[in-house]
Sequence to fold (306 residues):
Amino acid sequence: MSGTRIAVLGCGAIGSLYAAHLARVPGVEVWAVDPWREHVEAIESGGLTVTGQAAFTAPVHARTSTAGLPRCHLGIVATKSLHTREAVVAAKTVLADAAVVSVQNGVGNEELIAGFVPRVMRGTIVTAGAVTAPGTVRYDAPGDSWLGPFEPKPASADEIELLAGLLNAGGLKTHAVADARGPQWTKVVFNAATSPLAALTGLTVGQVCTDPALRAQVGILIDEARAVCAAAGIVLTRDPAEAVEEAIREAFRHRPSMLQDVLARRPTEVDVLNGGIAAEGRRVGVATPAHDAMVALVHGLESSWN
Fold:
């Protein structure tokens, strides 16, 4: 583990949490890249501070661009999916011999990353947090991470074990697995069944899941996604219906990122959530009319802002 250099592309809540926890590990050097100048300057001058579920400050190198970054052994892409290509293209020299993992929402990010770097991992996380001030990230909810090979262009088992070991050493529970599609799709199915409905109605996850008519739509979206997974040979790690009940109990007031994007009139990630399920459905011959409808409706809403 000693002497490992890691690039973190995107230093929002998730990128900041991963950068800070990795930088705690002796012998690990972390370079974070984010366009938010005030955040970057605060990290570079005073370290990256974590509050909430943990309390520490870690030394992280931070830049607003990849110019001048040294070559890294590992890379973590934590940008919004809309910025994946731009971020990885800018860092392709830095990551020229790196194993790179996406910890982003949805599916399809790995395919983009694989176009520019030699070896790729699938990553799935359930950790949650928020950047509360430049240089400070609040750690709201602990959760496991899963890392595994991206099958068409895989990182080696040793590289996956290395990154998982570093994250565990830093305090983020992480599992290295042979097939990471199950954890990834388990998260995607839940998010795709609830987030667009929240985004379209302005309701929280709990409100969507307890409204009888909307809950019926949640069920339809889950059933379609299950059929896609079955045809693709993807084994979910938990029943999506259980995740819905858990969200009602534990995250009733949660506004998913797609709703937050709509409220801020930002482009959403519907294309890597519902659109990702629909694309896989087309590949394996499973119709996904409900997910197609969510993509059309959310894009229609986005177009009304122009």
User: Anything to note?
Assistant: Residues 181-201 form the longest helix (21 residues). DSSP finds twelve helices and twelve strands in the chain. The CA atoms of residues 81 and 269 lie 7 Å apart.
